[in-house]
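Appendix B. Raw example, untouched.
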Amino acid sequence: MISYGNLICGLGWAALTLLAIFLTQKYYIPMLARRAGREETAPDLPRIRGGRDYGRILEAAALIGIAVFSFFCGCFTRAVAVDPAAFAKILLAFMVLTVSAVTDARLQIIPNPCPVVMLVGKLLIGICELIFLKAEPLALLINSFSALLIALIFLLIMAKLSGGGIGMGDVKLFSALGFLCGLAAFCITLLFSFVLCALFSIPALIMKKKGLKDALPLGPFILIAFGLSILFSMI
């Protein structure tokens, strides 16, 4: 049963997620599009008779699904977070991944500020851990930077072997996630995101919506994978 505190946290989490999506689409994406010289892309949506489309209905349904998903992520995070610092790190990661999911889906860009915000956020939260939670400085440094280095080296190798299948934006985002939330969060999110991407790609290839050489934005799958890792209490 969801407690009152978890309910309030979940509602606030969902509200922040929807706000992040709105601000990203309204202000951030047009700015990125102008800088990159790209046009915003949107998926081809089916049409009903008379030529009218129901894209707005599908977008509204997607927003409702995201709100419900983020609501439960907020509830579970409050229930399982061991301390306020852990809660803050997961919340920050989720919001940054939300922004990167929108930009990647619309422009196939994961902007540099996304990983930078996670890196800076980790440093600020780490300072608070040292001051208020009396964390061990050496252990904090080792855990953070070892996760960052392992994630970075592993993903650079994968990017090289995949021949561009993994972009540098994905590499930087995953590495920053490992730095912020730890090696376990990086490994689980990486695994889940690749599985989700594969599950989506197979039907798209069968229905000839996508070709083998078509680029598929990984950002949305990273967000969903991170949320699933929260719901399964794996981070």
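End of appendix B.
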